[in-house]
Please model this.
Amino acid sequence: MATQTGTQHRPTAGPTPDQDLLRLDLQVCFALHAASRAFNGVYRKLLRDTGLTYPQYLVMLVLWEHGEMPVKRLGEQLRLDSGTLSPLLKRLESASLVVRERSREDERSVRVRLTETGDALRERAAEVPRMITEASGLDRQEMVDLRARLRLLTEVLDAAAADEQS
Model:
């Protein structure tokens, strides 16, 4: 096949092993990203009748489990910075699901707690984890194993990131 310059187009050799490493379908990070987006799609459908988005659901899970807490601690639990967490809390507060209040002991600290409405929503959301397990096609033990492997991966990657910063 001739090109516009009159030279022959030669097919390149297959990818070298180093080039193989750059294939998108071989990236663990992309597989996790794609799985996360797929989970979000299922959660969007399952959470529809609760009125919660997936990130709001995560906030509510922490509050249902631990009760009232400082916003800073909530952010640590969810691995979210205040710039991401504050708008979530504002929307949950607008929906009368949570209340944010300055701490009496430390004016710099803001505490967040569930309202009665927010606490009652727990019952409607109770079936979501079971439905997620069903949607995943994994059995309960496979989900437990996957979660354990992902937690370990997170710990190892956090340590690697900390090593890079020091």
Remarks:
- The mean pLDDT is 90.
- The chain has eight helices and three strands.
- The CA atoms of residues 99 and 113 lie 5 Å apart.
- The chain has two domains: 50-126, 127-166.
